[in-house]
Amino acid sequence: MKKIESYLKRDKVELIEFEYNKKTYVLSGWWILEVFKDEGKKDKVSSTIFESKEDFLSAKIFDGKSIREIDDSKIKIFEVYEN
In terms of residue numbers, what domain contains 22? Predict the structure, then answer.
């Protein structure tokens, strides 16, 4: 099972910050994904709101792949916030 997907199975996870392909991603709240060019999160590239967790997990937004299709070794998780 993918690391990110295993975190999302937890009920109390409110934020996951990770890096993929030299971009920083922040998935928070009600399935809002923000993409930044840098780790300092100063230069936002995009922001997308997904209808559901499944929509996020299935969306082919990572170089034509879904988060499920990316090898864990290519994703660096910085932070997981649980309430």
Answer: 1-29
